[in-house]
Amino acid sequence: MGEAGALVNLFQEALRYLNDPFNWTRDGGILDLLGEHLRISASAVLVAMLLALPVGMLLGHTGRGGGFTVALSNVSRAIPTLALLTIFAVTPIGFGPTATTIALAVFAVPPILTNTYVGFRSVDRDVVEASRAMGMNGRQVVLRAELPLAAPLVMTGVRTAAVQVVATATLAALVAGGGLGRIITLAFAQQDYGAVLAGAVLVALLAVLTEAVLATLAWAMTPGPRRLWPVARGRTASDPRLSAFARPR
């Protein structure tokens, strides 16, 4: 009963912390830290997308570099984010949001790169050949034929990377980077375990929300009726060789 009572008290303390408006609205409170957390996470994922998407699209389109993609992804996954932050501390990058963003971007590249490459390689070659037969150049084949069909896997990589980054961004607090991790680190230092639990719950909820939003976006971008992706229009809808464009893959 003692352990059960302590657990109940812990949850009650966490709820009190979350229900206190002052903890949300004060300077450096939950809302401020949430904004920092989102900025760090979004910046890291955006940088990773700018680096990984073009490379994955190029390699997937040409069919080259599969071994390079796998090797790079494996090596990147093997590098702990905290180790990178420690290395940055002794370089001109130093501590702070910049170091955290770079480290998280490195962490986000592998799933985006791998899924983009696999997505483009999984596009039916008959569809690619049909698009070329219709007179599309290489750029048009990539953007109008391969990318719509590869979009579900590409978005899966982005979603995986984003959720991982949101969860891992709590490490930013260890290097003066801000974010919701500050609630956890400060509460640990003060032995306020109710606040520690509250911070962990906030990070978990943010990760779940990120997953839900990006999953919805991935669904909307999947080719098909009443979706956002502009496929099955004009010649594409009437040409039997390109009818696969209108079907989810």
TrEMBL record:
CDD domains: TM_PBP2. It comes from the Bacteria. It is found in: Cell membrane; Membrane. The chain crosses the membrane at residues 40-60, 81-109, 161-181, 193-220. Keywords: Membrane, Transmembrane, Transmembrane helix, Transport. Residues 34-214 form the ABC transmembrane type-1 domain. GO terms for biological process: glycine betaine transport; transmembrane transport. It is a multi-pass membrane protein. PROSITE patterns: ABC_TM1 (PS50928). GO terms for cellular component: plasma membrane. InterPro entries: ABC_transp_perm/SBD (IPR051204), MetI-like (IPR000515), MetI-like_sf (IPR035906). Belongs to the binding-protein-dependent transport system permease family. PANTHER family: GLYCINE BETAINE/L-PROLINE TRANSPORT SYSTEM PERMEASE PROTEIN PROW, POSSIBLE OSMOPROTECTANT (GLYCINE BETAINE_CARNITINE_CHOLINE_L-PROLINE) TRANSPORT INTEGRAL MEMBRANE PROTEIN ABC TRANSPORTER PROZ. This is ABC-type proline/glycine betaine transport system, permease component. It comes from Blastococcus saxobsidens (strain DD2). The lineage of its organism: Bacteria, Bacillati, Actinomycetota, Actinomycetes, Geodermatophilales.
